[in-house]
Design a protein that fits this description.
With 399 residues, the chain is mainly β. It is 4% helix and 31% strand. The longest helix is centred in the first third of the chain and has 10 residues.
Length: 399
């Protein structure tokens, strides 16, 4: 078992980030996961923990000196870049966290037009490894949405780290080639309804950095579910039958005078009308857990209807199981699979997310994207108006 690392948490809150869904329209063009009311799920903030040797900052030209951060010009600027000085960083004092006001100011003024105070459910669709594209929500009646997610639906932060050590007891030196791990994460509900929500489990993060493999700097990219502390990677199905209209029944399409349950998302098997059961659904309103939301053998009476759990309307032609469609998956690392083992201050195993460069700059850049994964079964209407916090802990070898 991996050692759970107990470190103090230093805040770099984003401020209040709301998860806002779409309102339904009269035309019936209804958005995914929030079909009829405006969602107001508060994203209270994010924390980062570090030891006194780890210095946290942002790779940006946005002036953050009013927030107690210091400007550094590290290395040579790229002469081919005319609009942004690539060598400009703002760092907090070693061991200190980024203040919420600084993050909000940075997100507002960095010119990227990404989310500042709200998130909306979006999706990676199928993902295994490497580069990642986020996509806008499904629309009722359309099986897929090929449009890339709007920038303002997710958060993007250019984090930076330096490792400072005192070799002579007087002057700190920025160390080269020091790997940096995500050692812990806390994803928890907050506010008055903290005991009623699990929407925080739908948070995903994607990181891009370079780590020191012992001989060179190697780029690594990880999709991580920070709420999952199991030691094995996980997955989320990105296909299934859904109730996007919110009427309690799986959505259908009509062909040849017959109604068929719509298969949304990305799947391996080709689905035609011949793929459905020979006899249509009867007149009962039994709940069907097509997407395997509940543990196997759960009685329908113990299930609750949602986007992912519904009934079939009478005379609907249906599929016998999720396996029949061969759903594709979003593959992700878990907190448990990326965090390191610790022995006497030395970190091994897991997956370092980044490392300080081996050149004179000695800076680690970590590109961080945060979003709410719409195919996660916790993104349902009853989670509206709930709140959650995300805390991330980074650590370095203390030798």
């Amino acid at each position: 078992m991996k050692t759970r690392l107990k470190l103090p948490i230093f805040s770099i809150c984003f401020g209040s980030l709301l998860v806002a869904g779409f309102a339904g329209t009269i035309s019936g063009s209804l958005a995914w996961w929030a079909y009829s009311t405006r969602a107001t799920v508060s994203y209270q903030g994010t924390s980062v923990a570090s030891s006194e040797q780890l210095q946290i900052g942002l790779h940006t030209e946005v002036d953050l000196t009013d927030f107690g951060m210091k400007k550094y010009e590290i290395g040579e600027d790229d002469p081919t870049t005319t609009q942004v000085k690539e060598n400009v960083y703002y760092f907090c004092d070693a061991g200190a966290g980024l203040p919420a006001e600084a993050i909000a100011y940075y997100l507002t003024h960095n010119g990227e037009h990404h989310a500042v105070d709200k998130l909306e459910p979006i999706t990676t669709r199928e993902y295994t490894s490497g580069d990642l594209t986020l996509y806008n929500p499904l629309v009722s009646g359309n099986s897929v949405n090929n449009n890339p997610a709007d920038d303002d639906k997710y958060v993007h932060i250019a984090l930076a780290f330096r490792v400072l050590r005192y070799h002579d007891g007087v002057t700190p030196v920025a160390e080269k080639g020091e790997n940096i791990w995500l050692s812990d994460a806390v994803v928890e509900a907050s506010g008055e309804k903290a005991n009623e929500t699990e929407v925080q489990k739908a948070i995903r993060i994607f990181t891009i950095g370079k780590y020191n493999n012992g001989t060179s700097m190697e780029e690594v990219k990880y999709l991580i579910n920070p709420s999952d502390d199991s030691e094995d990677p996980g997955q989320t199905a990105v296909s299934g039958c859904l109730d996007l209209s919110g009427d309690g029944y799986y959505d259908t399409y009509t062909k040849g005078g017959k109604d068929y349950a719509i298969v949304y998302g990305d799947h391996t098997n080709t689905i035609t009308e011949a793929s459905y059961e020979a006899n249509p659904w009867g007149d009962n309103d039994d709940i069907v857990d097509f997407n395997k939301v509940y543990p196997e053998n759960t009685q329908p009476s113990a299930m609750e209807k949602s986007t992912f759990v519904a009934s079939y309307t009478s005379r609907t032609y249906f599929l016998d199981s999720l396996d029949r469609i061969g759903p594709k998956y979003q593959k992700f690392e878990t907190l448990g699979s990326v965090q390191p083992d610790e022995e006497n201050g030395n970190l091994t195993g897991g997956y370092p997310l980044c490392a300080t460069s081996i050149d004179a700059r000695a800076v680690a850049d970590l590109d961080l994207t945060i979003w709410l994964e719409g195919w996660d079964h916790h993104v349902i209407d009853k989670e509206n108006s709930h709140s959650f916090n995300l805390g991330l802990q980074f650590q370095i070898t203390r030798l």
